[in-house]
Design a protein that fits this description.
Length: about 550
């Protein structure tokens, strides 16, 4: 195999560290590493209220350790190191998700907590979405039981999460969406996000406005991101039998609540937070986005609400803007300047060939080998004499190879025996001339041979010999990968008549009772010759 270019990952990275004072400190730290995790190059990270609470020491995620910590929980970037648990997220995949330690050049992510970024979105846009999507969908659908046609009240609609909630409710078919703000200047943002009614709770009666918008019923589901004194109004603005979800407490956790209203209107009051949920529970929350939410993001029904982007060197300014309540939408911290080189790419070898289908032996006495395998319980053998591959080349030059071949199955693995019977150049002849005998190659089969062949060459592999047995669907190639006997890789077409024959050989092994251990078969069988196929079917009985 020829050498391929690999990306060099730095030994250290920048990270915003909390737990050392009133502000984050930008430090050089070691790159994180954990078996099973996906490591991504962070290009952008969303800033959330919870990040400020964590900095103040009033919010600690369940997965966060004691002492100083790498801040951030919302991330968008490129998979740099894949995970055995996530073959669908190879290196180079653009992803967004939730994690611990997002405010850094690199972050570890649980494979279930990230999803691919739709092609239409950039990293900064993608970083505005994950927390809002999981928070609002979990509250609205999973916990509140929202169904199409219901009305939704979103309190704190101009928060980054609230703006996602408005779009989500509309995308899922809400009948009427009412959203609140405390600023007339931000009313347009609610309507632009899709709200049918925008209410300024600083100047308007919330309950009266909601009842007017819902024909006196009130909202079927209320999502509250504010808490504080305004929460006391929510039962009157929520329908009989409705659900009030307490999601955020921007105005504080304390409120005065008239329980008679809750009781008389038979309402459900549900509190929610992600801080104490396990990764398994969070994985279920992310997985729930798959059917309806991610398609809505991909087709633009749910769009990013990006307020401002700050480089990591100005993260303190980003925090001040969020604290002041000046943002409409999500504030994002950029780490893109750390990743200006080529994007990561998947490994060129891992899993590209699939599963081993055949183990190939090159032997001097094919009859003795068949007999020995038969004594080990492997058979029946199908022996083809004088096989002459078509279009056969060795090291790029034509070669008139003739060989005897025998095949049998042990379960799903086919065993192949090959003995060259003339002196024409081949990798088999080289193998024997070097004093070897036994396993010479492992084979991978594909019904899309040309695609596998092209990918192998693009990955840097070179061909030692190739040809075909039978028709156009009988192609094979041996790659020059031998570093000790038995390590040559063969790729082979597994379509057409060859597939039929190989399936029959597997069936014969599964039902073999020890009789007729060796069947002499016409070499034309592999090429689909009707007479040879009939002979083989007769051999099977």
């Amino acid at each position: 195999m020829t050498s391929t270019t690999t990306l060099t990952t730095p030994a250290t990275m920048r990270a915003l560290i909390g737990g050392k004072g009133d502000d984050w400190s930008l430090e050089e730290t070691e790159l994180p590493s954990q078996l099973g995790a996906v490591r991504i190059q962070v290009h952008a990270a969303g800033l959330n209220r919870a990040d400020l609470y964590a900095l103040e020491g009033t919010y600690t995620a369940n997965s966060q350790g004691e002492g100083p910590f790498t801040a951030g929980m919302e991330v968008a970037g490129v998979v740099e190191t894949g995970s055995l648990l996530a073959p669908h997220l190879p290196a180079g995949t653009r992803v967004m998700g939730i994690t611990v330690g997002a405010f850094a050049d690199y972050a570890l992510c649980h494979p279930r907590l990230v999803v691919p970024i739709p092609d239409r979105l950039g990293f900064e846009e993608a970083a505005t979405l994950p927390v809002g999507l999981v928070t609002e969908h979990d509250a609205l659908v999973t916990q509140a039981g929202f169904t199409t046609g219901k009305s939704v009240l979103i309190v704190g609609g101009t928060s980054s999460v609230g703006l996602i909630g408005i779009q989500l409710a509309k995308a899922l078919g809400a009948g009427t969406v009412i959203a609140t703000t405390t600023s007339d200047a931000k009313r347009a943002a609610l309507l632009d996000a899709g709200a049918d009614v925008a209410v300024n709770t600083a100047t308007e009666d919330l309950a009266a406005a909601v009842l007017a918008a819902t024909d006196g019923r009130g909202a079927d589901v209320t999502l509250d991101h504010v808490g504080g004194a305004l929460f006391a109004v929510l039962p009157a603005a929520t329908a009989v039998g409705g659900t009030i979800m307490s999601i955020g407490r921007l105005a504080g956790p304390a409120t005065a609540l008239d329980l008679d209203t809750v009781a008389f209107r038979r309402q459900k009051l549900v509190g929610t937070t992600f801080s104490i949920r396990t990764r398994a529970e969070l994985g279920e929350v992310v997985a729930a986005l798959g059917e309806h939410v991610l398609p809505a993001v991909a087709d633009g029904r749910i769009a990013p609400c990006l307020d401002t982007v700050y480089p990591v060197s100005r993260a303190h300014e980003a925090a001040r803007r969020l604290r002041a309540g000046d943002a409409t939408g999500k504030i994002v911290i950029s780490f893109a300047d750390a990743h200006t080189g080529p994007a990561p790419t998947p490994g060129t070898v891992a899993n590209m060939f699939g599963s081993i289908a055949q183990i190939g032996y090159v032997v001097r006495d094919i009859h003795a080998s068949m007999e020995n395998f038969t004594r080990a319980g492997i058979g029946p053998w199908f022996h083809l004499k004088g096989v002459r591959p078509g279009d056969f080349t060795y090291q790029g030059k034509p070669s008139d190879l003739v060989m005897d071949v025998a095949v049998a199955n042990s379960g799903d693995i086919q065993i192949e025996l090959i003995t060259p019977v003339n002196d024409a150049p081949s990798m088999y002849r080289d193998f024997l001339a070097a004093g070897n005998e036994g396993v010479q190659h492992i084979a991978y089969w594909s019904e899309n041979y040309q695609d596998l062949y092209d990918r192998a060459l693009a990955a840097g592999f070179t061909v030692g010999q190739e040809g075909r047995i039978g028709g156009a669907d009988g192609r094979f190639a041996y790659l020059q990968t031998e570093h000790h006997p038995g390590t040559v890789i063969e790729i082979s077409d597994a379509g057409g008549s060859k597939k039929v024959v190989f399936d029959l050989i597997r069936l014969a092994a599964a039902n073999w009772d020890g009789t007729n251990p060796i069947q002499e078969i016409d070499a034309g069988l592999i090429g689909g010759d009707p007479a040879a196929m009939t002979a083989m079917m007769e051999a099977f009985g």
